Amino acid sequence: MSKITVSAIEAKQLIDGYLARFIHTGNMTFSFVDVEAGKVLPEHSHANEQVSIMLEGEFELTLDGKPIRFSAGEVVVIPSGVKHSGLAITGCRILDVFYPAREDYRKLGGVDSN
Amino acid sequence: MSKITVSAIEAKQLIDGYLARFIHTGNMTFSFVDVEAGKVLPEHSHANEQVSIMLEGEFELTLDGKPIRFSAGEVVVIPSGVKHSGLAITGCRILDVFYPAREDYRKLGGVDSN
Hints:
2 copies of one chain form a homodimer.
Chain A: E1 4-5, E2 12-15, E3 18-24, E4 29-35, E5 40-44, E6 49-56, E7 58-63, E8 66-71, E9 74-78, E10 84-88, E11 92-99, H1 103-108, E12 111-112
Parallel strand pairs in A: 3-12
Antiparallel strand pairs in A: 2-3, 3-4, 4-11, 5-10, 6-9, 6-11, 7-8, 7-10
């Protein structure tokens, strides 16, 4: 396994306005997501622990009913099973890291180093 | 747990020229590292799986004897137990993600969401 160029990974549309490029290891999934301004992430939850790192832009995440606006250089930790939803305030780039790996995303593709 | 501002986390010097800000969850450690140009990372290995994401600048990582130059937008996966060393070609910012969490780094401080 050499280096991986994120922009060269085939992008998958998760939902309308959310385009993701995945890197999977045995234990973690890294999802680099480009989000269009104004697009909504419907409320959901999953057993996977999630850490969201804002790379560019501004996003409003609602975590367990509490709105959190975050922008480049800020991070939100979403514990296992906690409901969350979101709204892209601007176009943004987010890195979502999951443990354990998202097996549902692994089936969609991306780079698998496992 | 609300949002975390990376720049507000107290920085710890890992080795000469390597300044790190940590976020720990129960399972993962996120280490945001500022590296000075020309500074060397001596060869080492650890059981933790590591994923290195280049945020800014250029770094030469030597992974199991093989040099890999990577820059912003590129990622290297370092499997458990594989020897690696490095050299900062320019000043750079790297996000190193570890599974399981680096308990040695947790003792150094940072934000602990666990």
